[in-house]
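Instructor's aside before we start: the two examples that follow are unrelated to each other. I chose them only because their records fit on one page, so don't look for a connection. First example below.
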Amino acid sequence: MKLSVPFAPTAEQQFCLMGEAASPARRRGPPRCSPSQAQRWAVQAEEMMRSGDWSGAEAAHLVALYALVHARVYGAAPAELEGVTYAVARALARRMLEREFEGDVDKMVGYCEWAWRREQARHRQRQALGQEPRRIGWKLFFGGALVTDWRVAGGR
């Protein structure tokens, strides 16, 4: 009579059988941005605006610039820019900086100045005509469509 031996998996097979439970703990979800980080970037962006020196700026500073000028033009901070959304906006700004401006921060700041000057004039005009207010959201601002308008207007 033949005795049956129970299946004894190898260490590698055990790892495969256990799957993700055996893998080290991973951080789940997209990166986040704490309010203290956003505040620090805002303070730094404010100083860069005052000095005109954007040499140490990163994508996070460009998002902070967007938020600062948004608050000045519309009189309200963009409430949606917090946590995961700030991180996504930062990634979009980084991609725009690399793809549209070849990593030239000063060029992108020029685009930001142009876009906000134009929007401020349009916002005042809408207010004077009693029209419903509209605003430039972060997705539109860092998405690329306004860059085309900037280029058509002579921005390079």
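Example two begins here.
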Amino acid sequence: MKTMNEKDLLTERKEIAKDFYRNKDFFEDMCASIERELTPDFSKEDWFSLMEKSLVHQDETSIEMLMSLWNSKIVPHLPPNSPIGFGGYDA
């Protein structure tokens, strides 16, 4: 039998997956902009797949890779003190 904490975690993961797919168009547009403006060597499909593996499937390697890429490729182009970085993961 699952503990309450495990049930809460499972429910939260399902909600994250639903939100991700509900906002798929937004994520695809964002990934296309990132590719076009910042990472022509890392495609829209690459970004989207990495986000999906990180957010929906909770793949730890993908999460670490996304955090590192985001902080090295995206954060330097954001306004100072922007809250959109991933703490603790440097390039």
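Residues 4-75 form one domain.
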